[in-house]
Amino acid sequence: MKLTKTLLATTALTVAAGSAMAESHMASDMTLVSWGGAYQSSQQKAYVEPYQANNPGVNVVWDESSNEAVAKLRAMNEAGNITWDLVDVVASDAIRLCDEGLAMEIDPAADLAAAPDGTSAEDDFGDLLVSDCFIPQIVYSTTFGYRTDMVGDTPPTSVCAVFDTEAYPGKRALEKRPINNMEWALLCDGVAKEDVYDVLETPEGQDQALAKLDTIKDDVIWWSAGADTPQLLADGEVVMGSTYNGRLFSVIEEQDQPVAMLWDAQVFDLDGWIIPAGLSDERLARVKDFVKFATDTQRLADQAKYISYGPARQSSAPLVGQHAELGIDMAPHMPTDPNNATNTFLYNYEFWADYRDDIDAKFQAWLAQ
Description:
Layout lengths: L1 H23 L4 E5 L3 H18 L4 E5 L5 H11 L6 E5 H9 L8 H4 L9 H5 L9 E13 L24 E4 L5 H7 L8 H5 L2 H12 L5 E4 L4 H7 L5 E5 H10 L4 E16 L6 H14 L2 H7 L6 E2 L32 E3 L2 H20 L1
Parallel strand pairs: 1-2, 1-3, 5-6, 5-7, 8-10
Antiparallel strand pairs: 3-8, 4-7, 4-8, 4-9
Helix pairs in contact: 2-13, 4-14, 7-9, 10-11
């Protein structure tokens, strides 16, 4: 009996020591890269704080450089010094980083949690796994908000109101990059929705889009950070402006500003994580542990308590409830809600992965003219 107890105690100590050793082989610090603002705050509340509660020794540092992720990861790789552990990017950037070998390939079966009912992560995320390196988090849209007190008696119902400075005088806010702006310009210049990317891949089509944007160039304030347009709207400096639907939800519902959504031709997109290639074993172990937790069914549903982005897992959707602080039903504020999705524009990830650098250069040259 004594021998049995001794063996059991020894076994328990061995298991505990093994667990402690495994834990010691995971880094205690993680640098997460995201976009700042309400979105990053939702990640902090839904993912990081619960993870740290389970792993009290882990220190998380945020870097708000996601809009420069591709260029910065290229530079880090060139220097042989990867300082980021996990990076939030849009799907097209994930494809580019994966193609360039700057992001690590993921095995959904091993690296991501199954749904509560046993559905595999691969089936639960489905078509949103658009790259071998991409771990989806949310479906969001880029769309327009407008000042309700600056549009007269006829609020805009079409995205082409952005180009109508006669009916809606005043400054507009547009992102300082070609993505979405080029598509909207072609749509409002008479190109059929299904033909937009065929036209945009030609130099003539690019010139057509820039010519349409030329008609409002003098009336545009160009933004780089997602928080810019909501602030410009709140301050009354623009009559309308593009940004992410979650940012507009914040200025409308949380800040109670006189702003409304223009859902017409909202551009659906995906956002998610990539793990940079070249991490040490210790850093990689910690990041994988965090990612498996942060992208499970409950965590993605929890994020929707704080921001109006649709969770990327099918199993998360039924768990979306009310806003954590406002107590309002979040479903009607999602870009995927049927009332909001009557005329959507589907972003072409592969097109922008292939053409981004060339069109970026052309767009920036046009801006400088």
